Amino acid sequence: MNEDFLLMIPGPIPVHPRIFRAMSMKIMPHRGEEFNKLFMEQSERMKKIFKTKNDVFLMAGSGTAAMDAAIANIIQPGDKVLCITSGKFGERFRDIVKAYKGTVVELKYEWGSSINIEDVKKALEKDPSIKAVTMVHNETSTGVRNPVAEIGKIVRSTKALLVVDTISSLGGDNIEVDNWGIDLCASGSQKCIGLPPGMCFISVSQRAWDVIEKTDGTCYYLNLKKYKNNKYKAPYTQPVSMTYGLKEALDIIDEYGLENWIKKHEKLAKATREAAKTLGLKLFPQDETTCSNTVTSIKVPEGIDGQELVKLMRENHGIIIAGGQDHLKGKIIRIGHMGSITKKEIIVTMACLQMTLKDLGYKTELAPILNPISKI
Amino acid sequence: MNEDFLLMIPGPIPVHPRIFRAMSMKIMPHRGEEFNKLFMEQSERMKKIFKTKNDVFLMAGSGTAAMDAAIANIIQPGDKVLCITSGKFGERFRDIVKAYKGTVVELKYEWGSSINIEDVKKALEKDPSIKAVTMVHNETSTGVRNPVAEIGKIVRSTKALLVVDTISSLGGDNIEVDNWGIDLCASGSQKCIGLPPGMCFISVSQRAWDVIEKTDGTCYYLNLKKYKNNKYKAPYTQPVSMTYGLKEALDIIDEYGLENWIKKHEKLAKATREAAKTLGLKLFPQDETTCSNTVTSIKVPEGIDGQELVKLMRENHGIIIAGGQDHLKGKIIRIGHMGSITKKEIIVTMACLQMTLKDLGYKTELAPILNPISKI
């Protein structure tokens, strides 16, 4: 395999060599004291990342497994759920609710636009039987950060549970599960935490447990009660190597300090946005104040084929960025700045983006230093 | 972490350094052509291990996730399932059926005993509405191999689907999904395939698809239709590093040749059994011809505390073997011989077992070579 590429998509992300080394440690027995101590310690440490005193479980699975668990454990057929959608992953929650035969009340926004808090308030007032509200904190598909704190305040004044996907923001943006009133917070390993994909995380509030206890749902592998009641908070064989990796990843975050780790993401996001604007490009989110800390979504200029842009970035420069998903294919590009990514990678990515745009006929003046390089 | 131990439990198993190195390769974009080619190739190669032309899917999750998927996709509330149980994992299938509100018809055998084929025949004749039969090929909890081929013949003459757990035998014992008529075969990464835990496998027959298409079940992450319909047979982010590891693990198996890899397991099982019998120990399976190829289950001799035996094996010799589960705690020990384990590890394990038994008062004559070593 040719490993001479730079991965700049919004997850999975380049994994730090320290994490790979940790993951290569000898496999311990998953039911032994030593491993279970290590495992439980990491789930305790994850509470600090989630900023919560709630239970946090680590599971083997993709991030979607945690989203599924968040719904499967609280929904019986017919239960009403308000699903706020403004991108692919908001829609995923809606589809999960449907899979469990919940009744979806959809609050749908155009991809890239902001959520109107008043709409949420009205929807909840209109139908007090709504059992849960689902939303995405950081829409990976659009690069928009949604206002969880504000919506949490509204939801907390009702009986509904707040279910949030923080897969692409946890660790890379401020998330306050307890202060914001998130009852079920689903996240994943392969974004700002810095691990390969394959592990997911979920936090569960007491309010959520009260509902879970009364819900006669259908699930087994993702049954949260089994996790809670297990001595080691893990009823099935844990992903041992990923647990070693998580310890190392959390060590790295601790060395920075969580707030600095988040600030690093914030700076990289700002650098990416400012560089894009300097090139005359437009950000995809309608309101710049909603721009994500972890993925920057940029409109492809008129007359340029976005899929070609992504392809040439890879072929000519070995830089892998993401295009748009679903109806945004070819219309936007997305640059991830998560986990181990540093300013160096942003500089080279934005420089190569400019050169590639120029190659595609976009009018732009290369910096003196890039002028000769672009001809090599 | 102290890595000076030898892991001899029936999974997870010591992972070959080649696999760890492969897993340390740079993360590729999970939706890129190169990764998807690699991913699809491994699922094709897994078909050879399953000996099937059926679809085989690779999922992020523990083996239990594959067991769950095998049930969740075919069972609606009230559907009848014949669950053959003679150990912990047979019972797990029963519990999964209950979780999906299926009606369980249990054919229960004492742990360690064999399944009576005639009982299965009668149960199916008695109730033609039975939609599926669940069983475990290799009961990790008891060290018994169950007769899947024979039961398959009976089930195939009915309308029921045959659902089999091969988690602790796939790769280490002969499994013929097509010839035996297994409709849904669930397996995992961390046993005879040789990977760390965190990936699971499932094969799905056309007969199973016919039922799945008509079943109005409730699942999302584990919904097999979503896997089938996805262009890359993977609707959610794949465990990228585990996929690299799987390629390397299958390369290792190919270098041996699958039949030799299985024969290696068979030889180690025989070596373990013969050594145990030479020590005057009794095998736990009631019928020796049913002894597993991948885990050997041995009765703890009268007057000896099995939990103490396991503890001293670890403390005095750094060898980690497994005890009994549930009601067999303290009564049996289990030695795994899966994946990368060779005869060397069996020799040292059985030698240390003898020394430990002697330390606990068991009457046994150490080999001349062990006599001086045991005093050091």
TrEMBL record, chains A, B:
Cofactor section: pyridoxal 5'-phosphate
Aminotransferase class V domain sequence ranges: 28-326
One Pfam family it belongs to: Aminotran_5
UniProt KW keywords: Aminotransferase, Pyridoxal phosphate, Transferase
Source superkingdom: Archaea
GO molecular function term, any single one: alanine-glyoxylate transaminase activity
A GO biological process held by the record: glycine biosynthetic process, by transamination of glyoxylate
UniProt family annotation: Belongs to the class-V pyridoxal-phosphate-dependent aminotransferase family.
The protein's name: Phosphoserine aminotransferase
